[in-house]
Amino acid sequence: MTGPSTTTRLAAWPFDVRPGQVPANLDQAREGLERARTAGARLLLLPEKWTTSFLPAYDEAVLRASEEALELLHREAAAAGLLVAGSAPGPSGGRRPWNEFHLLGGPALLRPYRKRFLFSPTGEGRQCRPGEDPPRLFPGPAGLERAGAVVCYDLRFPEAVRPLFYAGLELLLVPAQWPVPRAQAFELLVRARALENQCFVLACNRSGRASLGGERVLDFPGTALLAGPAGELRARSREGAFLLAEADPGQLREARRKIPCLRDLRRAFPGLGESRAATGPMG
Question: Which of 163, 192, 225, 238 lies 20 to 30 angstroms, CA to CA, from 185?
Answer without folding.
Answer: 163
